[in-house]
Specification:
single chain; 74% helix; rod-shaped; mainly alpha
Length: 80
Amino acid sequence: MHPHLHTKTNRGCEEVMTALDECHAQGFIHKLFGGCNDIKTQVNKCLRAERLERTAKNREIAKQKREKTLAIWKEIDENS
């Protein structure tokens, strides 16, 4: 399964997701016999790459916030 497509966080995969939507529109039998499998794999790879990029960015922001918090606590301990 994949998350909801066409969201603001998935803008880089728009082209591949549109191709998947078009493939799904071809009908149930087409999907049943694996007609959309290659495109779905591409969507999954694209979404994974975007997720990894987002998590790396979030991890860096969290690290900076943690360092700031530790500095504040160190200052408080020194002044106590």
